[in-house]
Design brief:
The chain is an alpha/beta fold and 309 residues long. It has two domains: 92 residues, MurE/MurF, N-terminal domain (Udp-n-acetylmuramoylalanyl-d-glutamate--2,6- Diaminopimelate Ligase, Chain: A, domain 1); 185 residues, UDP N-Acetylglucosamine Acyltransferase, domain 1, CATH 2.160.10.10. Helices cover 15% and strands 31% of the residues. Strands 8-11-14-19-22-25-28-31-33-34 form a ten-stranded mixed sheet, covered by helices on one side. Strands 7-10-13-18-21-24-27-30 form an eight-stranded parallel sheet, with no helix packed on it. The protein has an eight-stranded parallel sheet with strand order 9-12-15-20-23-26-29-32, with no helix packed on it. It comes from Psychroflexus halocasei.
Length: 309
């Protein structure tokens, strides 16, 4: 999430009512999560386990809940609740805009694109040439869609990230200020859902085809010419390289990296990074040939047991 202009460190500190360490005129350019943070950005951290990672990251400003030594060339914002104050920044720089009609006046839609009845297009959406958006598709604010994209009925693009902090009084939501970017020649199936980034982008690359009832969570990157079959669920912050095939009911845990041309067979459960160019099956995911051999060995156990009696 980039700010519309540079802001002084003191201005940001005053906005969230936090103390600061560093030059009060130090320029701040945006606010992002740790996995997408860049120079000039604020990153927040509220657990000692992740202090070092945040302090060593590309972030120029660390929003933290403890006074620590400030790394050279950086600045600190010291807050009793960084999660809350990161939400304040999102509210300020990306406030919710109420819709007043089905197709927002601020949306930029090429004349050659077809919108079927019942489509909702939010504020500041961009849609390119020769797209076909079928009935009852919902496209949230700030979504960017390229050329020759087809989105089938009932799909939802750009809903909030599923991201909560567990507090004694209940779950506290991290407000989503990111967006979804869909490149050219992508097809998205009926009732598929793609959540926007918390502070960055959920990205669907050129030529990828997504089946009905697929869920892609916040800040995930999908490479070029991927195939994702029905009922697959991909958690947040995953990176899926080009030409990966994901068959039905596959589930991926958050933050995983799937290599180029990997194939994930139906109902595979993925809990660790997978190399490209191989076929995987089972839960936890293993190379398919190895998994099938294990299944054969297991099927022979009753026979072996009888011989041992």
């Amino acid at each position: 999430m980039k700010f519309p202009k540079p802001y002084a460190l003191k201005t940001i500190a005053d906005l969230i009512d936090a103390d600061f360490v560093g030059d009060e005129n130090y320029e701040v350019l945006g606010a992002n999560e740790i996995h997408v943070v860049e120079k000039g950005d604020i990153v927040f951290v509220d657990h000692p386990k992740y202090y070092d990672k945040a302090l060593r990251s590309k972030a120029s400003v660390i929003l933290i809940n403890k006074k620590v030594d400030c790394p050279e060339g950086k600045a600190l914002l010291v807050s009793d609740d960084p999660f809350r104050d990161f939400n304040k920044l999102t509210h300020f720089f990306k406030p919710f805009e109420k819709a007043t009609q089905n197709i927002s006046e601020s949306a930029e839609i090429h004349d050659s694109t077809i919108l079927q009845p019942g489509v909702f297009i939010g504020n500041h959406v961009k849609i390119g040439q020769n797209c076909l958006i079928h009935p009852n598709v919902t496209i949230y604010d700030h979504t960017e869609i390229g050329d020759n994209v087809t989105i089938h009925a009932g799909a939802v693009i750009g809903a909030d990230a599923f991201y909560y902090k567990n507090r004694p009084e209940g779950f506290d939501k991290l407000i989503s200020g990111g967006k979804v970017v869909i490149q050219n020649n992508v097809e998205i199936g009926a009732a598929a859902t793609i959540d926007r980034g918390v502070s960055g982008e959920t990205f669907i690359s050129e030529g990828t085809k997504i089946d009905n009832h697929v869920q892609i969570a916040h800040d995930t990157f999908i490479g070029k010419k991927c195939l994702i079959a029905s009922q697959a669920g991909i958690a947040g912050c995953c990176v899926i390289e080009d030409e990966v095939t994901i068959w039905g009911q596959v589930g991926l845990a958050s933050g995983l990296h799937i290599g180029k041309k990997a194939i994930l067979l139906a109902q595979t459960g993925v809990s660790k990074d997978l190399e490209g160019g191989k076929t995987y099956f089972g839960t936890p995911a293993e190379e398919a040939r190895k998994k099938y051999k294990e299944m054969v060995y297991i099927s022979k156990l009753p026979e072996i047991y009888k011989k041992l009696k």
